[in-house]
Amino acid sequence: MRKIFLMRQHVRILLTLLLISSPAMGDTPVLKVTPEPKVTPELKPLDEVWEAAYVDVGGVSTKIGHIHLTSKIVEAGDKKFLRTTKELRFVVNRGANQAEMKSDVTCDENAAGLVSGINAKIWLGKENVLELKCNVTPENIISIQAAGQFNFNRQFKWDPACIGLAGEQTFLKNKKAKPGDNLTYRYFEPQVTNYVTVHVVVKDLDEVVLPGGLKRKLLKVIATPDPLKLEGDRKLQLPPATFWADPISLETVKTQMDITELGIVTLLRTSKLAALASNGQMPDLMKRQSIYLKTNVPDIHDRESVTYRITFAGDALPKELVSTDNRQSIKNIEGKTFDLVVTARHTPPSVKPEDKVDEQFLKSNYFINCDDATVQELAKRATGLTTDPWQQAKKIESFVRGFMKPVDYSEAMAPADHVAKTAQGDCTEYAMLTAAMCRVKGIPSRTAIGLVYVDDLLGKPGLAFHMWTEVLINGEWMGIDATRPRPRGAIGPGHIKITDHSWSKVISFTPLLPVKGFIMANPTIEVVGK
Predict the structure, then answer these.
(1) Dihedral angle at the C-alpha atoms of 31, 34, 40, 42, nearest 10 degrees?
(2) How far is CA 211 from the centre of its chain?
(3) For residue 318, is pLDDT > 60?
(4) Average pLDDT score, the chain
């Protein structure tokens, strides 16, 4: 087996988890990295690798899925390259429902390790797949296309120092890693359509207990990615992953990563039979991604104002955790504790400012694809002869509520055209369809992403991940939420906004990452003012 370590599976697990919890694409800067001189190796396939994934559920190590890696030599004309594919299959619970984390990534590299293409398939539902095709030209330009009705094609400068899947697999071996080494590499992650830089520290030998009670002294390796740069001044520092490798062959035997939503995830190199064995009791994401309150807050969505006292861990600043706008303000900051005052907004201003609306909130894009014929037809049905933008938005909110089928966890981040045809989904699908229908009527829209109060969250009052829609009416962003049993035409203080996004120039899921940062801050929340 030639499997060594794979930091990108750590990042991909985190991102895929975020999708089922229901990158901004631009001219990506390229760091000036001078590749080290290296001897061109012989082009030959890597050995097939199977890994079984486990988490701790109630003190018991439970299998939740597997990772499978294969590679083969491919010839195209007079060129020959190595094509490596990694499949990820995890299953977790969301309350009474199951959700599958499923993705395939394929990378083409030549004998010198230069990447010529990366393709990714990310399942957003049983039949809804996001396909990304990333091709690298000889002139070091990467072109990214997304399969689907909306035509998405972006290009920017490629960093030739990036390594591919095979290069990452053999990284420790190629570097002849030994205790005390500090190493760095970069790779391109399709799920954030951007580069990730990883810093590797090789520690001393560590005695590790493996399945069956076998003890082995293995080389301990810690890989820490640089913070992911989000929009504005926000960053997301993903936790490190720890690998234990054979000190002679430098093959990884065991991997662990602390993922907030799951706990400690352990990957063990194993046989195909063991990797494909039945999974055990699944961890419940609803429990791990929710923030529970001490007491319930009756009629919170109908109140005029609520003050939340938030205490968090880490070095983040309050403004890096939550948004401030016409509904939310941060007050009384004391160390890692602050008050967030959330106020209901029921009525937009009566006078429209002359400021020009940014077209990103009006144009069709991959997720909010308002150019779709079905979406346009639904918008017309919803609004009828109504011409006032705020009244149109409220009618769309009510229509989407009645149009959508009961919550279905088989979808995650489906584009609006897909939702318009299936009428299925949870809050993310409601929000995308509502935003797209509003744009059809010329109403600027975006999605708000954050938390919502739930009176009975697995038996307790608390705050759960949520997405809703915001529309710009007379210069002020107003929230509407089609998921509520009784759409109110505006939102109250039971919604806490962490971020918002137009989804312009986006084919990945970085707009959701600020919620990940909030959860990783391990916040405790108490309602102190009602």
Answers:
(1) -30
(2) 32
(3) yes
(4) 85
Structure-token match 């002139």, residue found: 139
Backbone φ/ψ region at 195: left (φ over 0), alpha (ψ -120 to 50), beta: beta
Going by C-alpha positions, the residue among 263, 162, 175 that lies closest to residue 219 is 175
Can you tell me the distance from the alpha carbon of 227 to that of 232, in angstroms, rounded to the nearest whole number? 14
Amino acid at position 324, single letter? T
Of 12-21, 144-153, 346-355, 447-456, the one with minimum mean pLDDT is 12-21
> pLDDT confidence of 150, banded at 50, 70, 90?
low
Backbone φ/ψ region at 527: left (φ over 0), alpha (ψ -120 to 50), beta: beta
Rg (CA), the chain: 24
Cβ contacts of 371 within 8 Å, gap of 6 or more: 150, 364
Q: Which residues contact 125 (CB under 8 A, 6 or more apart)?
A: 410, 411, 412, 414
CB atoms within 10 A of CB 79: 10
Mean pLDDT of the region 416-436: 92
Q: Coil, helix or strand for 216?
A: strand
Torsion, CA 379, CA 383, CA 389, CA 395, rounded to 10: -100
Task: Please tell me the predicted confidence (pLDDT) of residue 165.
Answer: 93
| Whole-number Å distance between alpha carbons of 269 and 66 | 10
- Determine the angle formed by the axes of helices 373-383 and 389-403, rounding to 10 degrees: 110
Nearby residues of 114 by Cβ (< 8 Å), 6 or more positions away: 160
CA end-to-end distance (rounded Å), the chain: 60
Instruction: Round to whole Å and give the CA distance between 509 and 511.
Output: 5
- Asked if residue 35 has pLDDT above 80, the reply is no
Q: At what angle do helices 427-440 and 389-403 cross, to 10 degrees?
A: 140
- Which among 67, 72, 107, 73 is positioned nearest to 88, based on CA atoms? 67
The two structure tokens encoding residue 302 = 């109908």
Burial class (CB within 10 angstroms; exposed 0-12, middle 13-18, buried 19+) of 398? middle
| C-alpha span between 470 and 341 (Å, rounded) | 19
Whole-angstrom Cα distance, residue 523 to residue 321? Answer: 10
Residues 207-235 have a mean pLDDT of 87
Tokens of 260: 């907030």
